[in-house]
Design brief:
By secondary structure, the protein is of the alpha+beta class. The protein has one domain. The strands form 2 sheets. Strands 1-2 form a two-stranded antiparallel ribbon. A hairpin with a 2-residue loop joins strand 3 and strand 4.
Length: 137
């Protein structure tokens, strides 16, 4: 009888252990499934981020090229404006109240220092408005 009780107790312990082992294996399988789902989500997100980085790098390259072009044109326009200013100053006469100004067409125009003579200069597609009275004073 004592043997039967011991065997019965051992059988109960073994059954409980088997049940616990089955429950733990199911729990582990659930964790593995969750991990696989997370890994898939992370891989998908990683691909999206890599594509986004590539797009941003392409846009950055385009913007850098545009910035270089704008800088180049602005420098060229500034040099051209400086050239026009120097030409204007060099063509200025020493007449007391009248100034001679060379225009683009090569014509010489007389103007009084008191006149407000505003005009526009277009250099490489950039329009600048210049008040020549400030240049002559």
């Amino acid at each position: 009888m004592v043997c039967c009780l011991i065997v019965e107790n051992l059988m109960t312990v073994i059954k409980n252990s088997e049940d616990e082992t089955g429950r733990l294996e199911e729990e582990i399988d659930g964790y593995r499934t969750d991990i696989d789902k997370m890994l898939d989500a992370f891989r998908t997100r990683e691909k999206e981020l890599v594509e986004e980085i590539d797009n941003i790098q392409q846009r950055n390259e385009v913007l850098s090229n545009l910035l270089d072009l704008v800088t180049e044109r602005a420098d060229s326009a500034a040099k051209q404006l400086e050239k026009y200013q120097k030409e204007l100053i060099s063509h200025r006469g020493d007449i007391s109240n009248t100034e001679h100004v060379s225009t683009k067409s090569g014509d010489v125009t007389k103007m009084s220092k008191d006149d407000k003579w505003n005009t526009e200069i277009q250099v490489i597609g950039i329009t600048r408005y210049v008040d020549y009275t400030t240049l002559m004073s």
